[in-house]
Structure formats: C-alpha cells, structure tokens
Write a structure and sequence with these properties.
Helix 1 crosses helix 3. The chain is an alpha+beta fold. Helices cover 52% and strands 15% of the residues. The chain is built from nine helices and six strands; from the N terminus they run H-E-H-H-E-E-H-H-E-H-H-E-E-H-H. The C terminus is likely disordered. The protein has two domains: 74 residues, Arc Repressor Mutant, subunit A; 91 residues, Winged helix-like DNA-binding domain superfamily/Winged helix DNA-binding domain (Arc Repressor Mutant, subunit A, Orthogonal Bundle), CATH 1.10.10.10.
C-alpha cells in the first residue's frame, strides 16, 4: 500500500477501535515495524483531520494514538454524549493524580502497582490526564477537561481541597483524612 492508503487504514482502525490504538497495534495494522514511518503517518493524518474541519483530531502520546472529538464539538454535544464509565482502579488512579499532582508516574506505580500503566493509557485517551516526559519517567497532572467534567474548575492547587469537600459532602471523608501529605 501507499502512504495515503496506509493513512486511511490508520484512520479507519482508530475509528473502529473507538479512537484508541497502542503504537504496537497501529504498526501491526499498517504492516510496518518502523515507528518513524508510523509517526509520519500519524502526522499526515493529524494534518488531514485538521484540514477537513471535521469533528475529530488525532492525539499522540509516547505509546498510543487516539482519535478524539475536537473541543468545540464536545461543548455542543454536552448532555448528548453518554457519561464516561471508569473502572474502580482507573478512578482510584485518577483520584491520586488529581490529589497529588504534579506526580511522577514512577511514584504512582510504587503506590498502585503496574496496572497504573493501563489506567493511565485510558485516562490519557479520555483526555483527563496529561503526561510530560521527565528524566526516565513522566510527570502527570490533570487537564482542564478533567476539571470541567468533574466540576472542579480552578487552579491545580485548589483541586485537592475541592475533592476533599466533595468527599465530605458524600460522607467518604472525615476532616482527618483530608490532610494532604
């Protein structure tokens, strides 16, 4: 296949998989072992999606590609799109990122175990967490989408306080358990 066909195949795979592929899966689908070639295809697809003025954008991380709705479409479809269902584990991981941000991924793995990698992949794909490379690990923090989705608008420092308030309202936390380490 040619570059355009591979690019279209990548787009179709992302759409069929509900917007998320690991780089390994994407290389397998396109039939290449070259991450460089795959990244070139991803850049071409991102450009093509941007030029279409359509509803989707391509988001790339170090380990995956995801197809997401552009922010202006998300706001117009609010209330129409079903709420996200996160596993208990992913929700616990997200809570720790929100409460302790910015947090090193390596610290999170020590606290929660290796399953954190799967949780973070889902959370990054959903746009709730962003990761930035730092030395041999990543620095994790929540995104504005996370804040808006969970009603925690404000600066990063205020999120743990707001989480504690919500926890007390729901009867999950006592004043002693809300102290930040």
């Amino acid at each position: 296949m040619g570059v355009e066909e591979d690019c279209s195949l990548l787009e179709a795979a992302l759409y069929a998989r509900e917007g998320f592929l690991s780089l390994r899966e994407a290389k397998q689908i396109v039939g290449t072992s070259s991450e460089t070639y795959l990244r070139k295809l991803a850049e071409r697809l991102a450009k093509r999606l941007g030029e279409k003025h359509g509803p989707f954008k391509l988001v790339q991380s170090e380990t995956s590609l995801s197809l997401r709705l552009k922010d202006d479409y998300l706001s117009k479809l609010e209330g129409f799109i079903p709420k996200v269902r996160l596993s208990k584990g992913a929700l616990k991981t997200l809570s720790l990122v929100a409460y302790k941000q910015p947090i090193l991924q390596s610290e999170l793995v020590k606290m929660r175990g290796k399953r954190v990698y799967d949780h973070l992949r889902v959370l990054e794909t959903l746009g709730f967490v962003e990761a930035r490379s730092y030395q041999k690990t990543k620095v994790l923090k929540t995104t504005p989408k996370f804040s808006g989705y969970f009603g925690l608008e404000g600066d990063i420092e205020s999120i743990p306080i707001k989480l504690a308030e919500k926890g007390r309202e729901l009867g999950f936390l006592t004043p002693k358990t809300t102290q930040r380490e």
